[in-house]
Here is the input.
Amino acid sequence: MDLAIETTDLIKRYGSIVAVNHLNLKVESNTIHGFLGPNGAGKTTTIKILVGLLKPDGGRVTVLGEEVQGDNPDVRLKIGYMPELPRFPKHLKGYELLDIYGKMYGISTQERKIRIQRVLEIVGLKGRERDFIGEYSKGMQQRLGIAQALLSEPELIILDEPSLGLDPAGMVEVRGVIKEIAKEGVTVFLSSHLLYEVEQVCSHVSIIHRGACLASGRLEEIIAKISGPVMLEVELAEESEDVFEVLKNLPFISKIQRENKTLIIKLETTDDVRPQISQAITKAGGIIVYMNMKRRGLEEAFMRLIMKS
Ligand SMILES: Nc1ncnc2c1ncn2[C@@H]1O[C@H](COP(=O)(O)OP(=O)(O)O)[C@@H](O)[C@H]1O
Ligand SMILES: [Mg+2]
Here is the structure.
């Protein structure tokens, strides 16, 4: 497994506050990885350590195969970074801002022209680059922040709360941009306190609380692992003892609750077994008029996890 980010026992204190507490984090390359946690969980602090803006008090950090201890220019150039709530000078035009960043990255004049056009396209700001940043909506400013982070053609892009302060339409825009970036083969690591956002855009997630990682892995696996059993509600055209007997013997069903024509089935598996169940019911002479799988989402799983710890 190729890792874009790895932290081992990472620690960061601000005086007596332990912001990051033995954090172990693994981010696979070529994924969109959500760094999810409530406000104050330690996301921004961790990200600042990853990009070399803060020095850890303990533990190890490896980014793109290189160890990070404070600023490491070799690694910095391979990472795109958008800070939490980026605010740019309003009197500059979008293009001017990107050109300044391009110069800072040491990109030649010729190459800057090409790259600026490319990133403008990715973030959907083409045609607006000659407007003043002061005239941009918050969503556009956020997308300009992402464009800035993409300019050095990084292998890894780290976005700290990319949809903070955006309205729903702005959030959709930013999500679209994130998916575009991932298609280009860039690893995306984004922090968020919004579960819904992570669920919409990420393939992987690490849940952080009080500076430590509570769960990490593929999104569906995390949901399955922490959200408990899946329930299936089936309504039959008529009550049937035969159907009940057949279902009872299926290995992936652990419990059936009967309420007249409705069966509430508790599943042992997180696989989608609706076809097998439907087939078994039909075979036993039953007719399904309604079926609904109640799979709990990340929101509920997240709350349970946070409450337990
Ligand atoms: N510069 C700082 N000085 C003192 N405490 C800080 C500072 N920055 C963050 N903290 C504290 O560290 C903890 C983690 O903060 P932060 O990393 O910003 O969390 P998040 O980004 O998940 O909201 C919080 O308790 C916060 O109040
Ligand atoms: Mg933060």
The chain has a mean pLDDT of 92. The first helix runs from residue 43 to 50.
